[in-house]
Amino acid sequence: MKFALSALSIAMTTVTLMSASIVTHANTDTHVNPTAAPSHASSQNEIQTITQIVEAEDSAAHIQATDDIRITHSAMSHDHKRTTKPLSTLIDPITHKTVDNSYALDVSSFLSLEQAQDILLQVSPKIAANDAAIAASEYQTDALKTLDNPLVFARVSASAYHLDEDIDLSSLRSGIVNEINNSVDGIVPPPVPDLPNFGELVGERLPDSYDFKRSGETTSAGLGVAWPIYTAGRTAALTGASRARTQETLADSILDKNALYNTLIERYFKAQLAIIAAYLRDDAYDTLKQTDHMAERLYEEGFISHVDRLEAQSALADAKSEAVKANNDARLAMIALQRLLRTDYRIKPTTPLFVSSRPLPDVSYFQDLALNNHPGLQKVAAKRAQAQQLHALSDTGYKPTIMLYGYGQVEKDPSWVAGVSASWKLWGGLDKTASLASSSAQIRQADLSEIEVSDNLLLLVEKNWHDVNNAQARYQALQSNVDLAAEVLRLRRLGLQEGVNTTIEVVQAQTQALKARTEQAQAAHDYVQALAALMQSCGTPLAFNAYLNAADIQLPTLYTQQ
What we know:
Blueprint: E1 2-4, E2 7-8, E3 16-25, E4 62-72, E5 75-76, E6 88-91, E7 98-102, E8 110-111, H1 113-123, H2 125-144, E9 151-168, H3 170-187, H4 198-205, E10 209-230, H5 234-300, H6 306-340, E11 348-349, E12 354-355, H7 363-373, H8 375-394, E13 401-409, E14 416-423, H9 432-498, H10 503-537, H11 544-550, E15 553-554
Parallel strand pairs: 1-4, 2-5, 8-11
Antiparallel strand pairs: 3-4, 6-7, 9-10, 10-13, 12-15, 13-14
Helix pairs in contact: 1-5, 2-5, 3-4, 5-6, 5-8, 5-10, 7-9, 8-9, 9-10
């Protein structure tokens, strides 16, 4: 099972699943001793592969073909390349979740470190999630860029109405009658005989109530525009703050990616070391079986005592137990690498442990790299940029916003309105003085954080630089121990055959030889891990590959590239 991240453009954020099949073969025709003297890079192609140590569950020399389902998280990649692979929907075999937009990724079970690094970028859910966060932040910035653009809108309405109301007119009728009568009395001088009652005449024509009924339909349409022509820099400040947040998200993504690179190196070469340790334990067990057989013959012929015979048997049992434990440790180390690369089969590391006899450049070189490349400083710079943009936004508190606007109806005889408006904040809302003080404090915080982070980085780089040199010196010093232990073991075994040495002396010599070879392999592992830590602290984790390729000492490996 593999999780992979496809290289889509910034605008695409998807999660993908894939399936494929893979057949791998291991060559067991030639049995190579991985504990032989370390070879130079030129002789590395001569090393054959064996699998019986770490693939103890496989009874055959060949690994059968297995169905390989892999999941790919598609998201924005930093080089903005777009995948052309067909996408589909499949099921994640680990979480059993449905994942859309999936594609197949064919991965060999034999991987060099550089191949594993490339696959890690594609299969890591963490990297995919970070790329999605970067894409989301960039989209937010793009959305803010149009705040100052004209807003054009259309309005269309259609309505139907119906009115039915019984209106009481009695009070209105009484008022009119009284008003008329009073007016007539004031105009006609008395006495005037036989004049009609004008109020009653008018009142008879007015009803006491009126049933009002109306119904119909109406439609209207119009176009409007609103254009903020001056916002006192608010839009630029908001866009700048969003862009700075994107830079912070990008710096966090690089930090996570560098940490994943370091984790990969740790697990990859830990698996290599565990495989070598398993081989050494198996080799020691085979040797002690020969010693035990020789002790048995000598005991039968009366050359050694019963105690010596028992010591040989006890040493053989211990060696068998240690060999089983070493093989289990190797499997566990390979499973850890398998989990990181999200496969459902074992990954066989083909890049050997290595040590360079050449001295490292001066520590100041790596410190300059750290100050120029470490994403931690980039994150601090992004924080400062955000604070600066917030300061600029706070400074616009009492500045006006000027807007052009207009609206016109789309009718036979249209009406329209257009104008310009300006608005100021006079009182209320956020306190401008407090906002400016807050953003100024954030800028100062970022400046001081940059000093602290730089100091810590310089110290970390120097510590890792010394760790690399110490591991290099220890590896070179242990070579004499390996040579001495091998020669002592050879002499003790000859002495046992001649009756000069006892079985316990042979066992002790075997133990010392195993210890010397294991310590030297551990020193090479320490060198690799210290170098990886140094490259990560410089912010250039992939520079590790250049030192790997230039190394003049390489330990043998059980697996080679197929």
